[in-house]
Amino acid sequence: MSAGDLGPVLFAYDGSDLARLAIEEAGRQLEPGRNAVVLTVWREFAVGFVPPPGVTFDAAATDEVRKAAEETAAQGASMAQAAGFRAQSLAVKGAPTWKGIARVADDRDASLIVLGTHGKSGLTGIFLGSVAAAVAEHSGRTVLIVHRRA
Known about the structure:
single chain, 150 residues, alpha/beta, five-stranded parallel β-sheet, 5 strands, globular
């Protein structure tokens, strides 16, 4: 099966260093030329992503948060293109974040979901949860979880 026969790779991209690392690692691990969707999931107030440098917004203003999320996703798509993917960006409103990721993966028939993990464990992990763990647990799709390098 060639890369063109597979569904797109879905990158869950929140603008963090770990999300950047996940794109870079997928670029090393996967065949170049794959279609990809770089997704930023957002919500008001606790927005769920890190905007690109110089992008400011009011976290209570839906239009401003959506626009910043779109810019964040576009930044990630640019990185994915540099890593060898044919990438497009997408920003969607969703809570919790893992549900937004799983829904888009299903909608786009993604062959693989790629995301970074903060690797929280113990009490921090119990109380904060983990988007990566929830996606892996609840999605029927293959998930590549990239950890921070030691």
